[in-house]
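ERR on first pass: missing label on line 2. Operator R.T. fixed the label and resubmitted. Corrected input:
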Amino acid sequence: MQPVPGASLAPLGGLARYLAIYGAFWRYSLVREMGFKLNFILWILVELLWFGLQLSFMAVIYSHTDHIASWSRWQVVFLVGANHFIQQLFTALFLSNCLKLSENIRSGGLDFLLLMPVNARFLVSLRHVDFGAFFNAASAVVVMVYAGMQLHLAPSVAQYAGFALLLLVGLSVHYSVMYALACTGFWTVRAEGILWGYYNLFQLARLPADAFQGLFRAVFTFVVPVLLVSNVPVKLIIDKLGSPLEMLWLVLISAVMFTLSEWFWRASIRHYASASS
Amino acid sequence: MGKYGYAISLGIQSTLVYRVNFVVRALFGLVPLLALILLWRAIHEGQANPDIGGYSQSEVITYYLIVNVVVALTAVTEDDWQIAADIRDGRISQFLLKPIDYLRYRLCLFAAGRIVYTAAAVIPTAVFLWSQRENLVAPASGLHFGVFAASVVLTGLLQFFVSFTMALLAFWVLEVATFIFILFAFEYVAGGHLFPLDMLPSWLQAVLHLTPFPYMLYFPVSVYLGRVQGALLWQGLLVQGCWVAATYLLARAVWSRGLRRYSAVGG
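pass 2 clean. output:
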């Protein structure tokens, strides 16, 4: 069996070195983005507009009813905000990297990354940072704070910490799934369709999971757990958790998803036979 | 087969290359639709009143189903990007030299793309509609269905002319994607994609009806559901026809102004 390139070359430890490299990615991405300032601002506006649309959808529904399943208006607004926060963080850190992977496979540009004396997955996943999305993540925080005030929330320190942690766990679920899907680019020519398809599923995550039943809920809880990603952290902070097992399940599934994506990445890269040579 | 007939067959052949992509897109597109349907069902189940915002459960579900059918039949998917790229990369020069009209040529490609997409999506969509048959309301009457069909054609034309005009911005700016996305966002809500427009406060509806957006999706769907009656049917169809004519003339005007600026990069 051939050794996995990149993975075998990566030195153990060296956290400081990786942080330094990551800092360089940030600087480089920032310089690039500032080269297209108008575009940068317009994209922030586009995303703000979409966020407004999601909220307007809920406003229209709640102008005709006062609850969806057991969720009140401001609870749902909080959920939409939390989901937008996760989605924007995902966009900032991972989205363009996942999309670029299949492009790099096609063009053979991946060879260049594999030859670097750094963990290849680290390079592939984190090289580009989309700064505009941080602004939009901030807009999501504003909405969450406002909704929290309307709900008269007074969470404990443990709830705050758990909420923040679970948001990151949710983010990692999205990342693992998307990364595994991007790896299908090693086997088929165009993976972008599948990637955008999954990105579409993000919009499920902003709906209260309790509104769904049966097969649909089972599939999107256990197989593709998008219904957990935003719901569980929000339920923790608004005191809506049925049982602490829900949190445990989210943590567990994120670990499983990450392991699966790592396994699939290694299998894919072993299968990879460069494009140009 | 005339030259535009060849354009259509060319369009069909080149989109057939992406048939798997189409099926994947159609399948993934059904998931959010299913989620919306289940969401509305949950909303209705929690209410004593069978009508929410003037829609019964079956009506609101049918609304979303028909919205998706109309979108599949009329939405512009790749055409605007391709037109913008043709302009940016100087590929439209060849059309200026040949006795072929670029707008008509692109309209043929658009029609071909819709035909292939419809063919690819027809089976998953039919299965899906069948699975929702309990909540699928039939068209209000034969007349309504006829007007609906005519209106869908006008919707397709309106969608195309608007997208074509937006793509022509590429004569003036390098990156048209953001402008297209901003317009798309407005259309998404003001066209009735997200929720039926008559759930909005009436003053807002009145404002929206002064814009072309309701005629880019909402109008045919509301005709199907029989929410437009009598003389208003014909009046709506007429207004929609006027918007088609107006956007067509706008597309022509922008095209000829754009050509004056055009410098044929690279060729």
